[in-house]
């Protein structure tokens, strides 16, 4: 059983299962979340509940973060009441998606206080968090990566991207742009086929056996669009945040993103039309409405 005490802040759809995997592996874990129900679920499994961010930083040597936005990560790490004022924490492992520039800023401020920032975003969705099959994209000095790798492997396969904070974020933004683009363009292709009379389930079988297959046709459409549930577990507003960060970063370093910008606008429209709680597979719902045809398994409502 590992002797080091770990902290975990952010116990939502992704953070909760990841923290649970550490508990299952025998790690001593101090946890915090503004949602007390989420804290209670982890406490029932053996975690120590903390009353504040500072309590986590006082209780743990290494603190994991799984948070929704760059602004929240900054508040939690380097804000007035954040981890930076803790007495014990010497390493912060950020599993969030915040973009390379914010990651570099947080790393710089923490380093001035003797705390190492590990840039380690993850990809693979809620199912991957539960199963431990997430892709972990880590960037930090190599010796710290080597020390952390056995722990990170509880979340899934780990990839070393380099020694600078932001390199993991750049990889994650590229990945999430591709994921969102796959949903957007698959929605249009599927709507066209269904309106022309094709069976959507057969369409997916053909696409997945051919050159058009992608993560949307293999996973998201069979699970969340054909049944009409639109519940793959990733909010459209968060997908928009990731794609916006990607396009902004590309523009900042001189890489044109014409297709990326179109995907970003599609996510803006999806959130505007379907609400803040919309899943990012609701992109297909928007396209259905415009096309006047539902993309559903034959026999489904």
Automatic annotation (TrEMBL):
One GO BP annotation of this record: organic acid catabolic process
Alphabetized GO MF terms: NAD binding; NADP binding; oxidoreductase activity, acting on the CH-OH group of donors, NAD or NADP as acceptor
Pfam families xref list: NAD_binding_11, NAD_binding_2
Keywords, alphabetical: NAD, Oxidoreductase
6-phosphogluconate dehydrogenase NADP-binding domain sequence ranges: 6-161
Keyword Ribonucleoprotein in annotation: no
3-hydroxyisobutyrate dehydrogenase-like NAD-binding domain span: 166-286
Entry's EC annotation: 1.1.1.-
Protein name per its UniProtKB record: Beta-hydroxyacid dehydrogenase
Native source species: Bordetella petrii (strain ATCC BAA-461 / DSM 12804 / CCUG 43448 / CIP 107267 / Se-1111R)
Taxonomic path: Bacteria, Pseudomonadati, Pseudomonadota, Betaproteobacteria, Burkholderiales
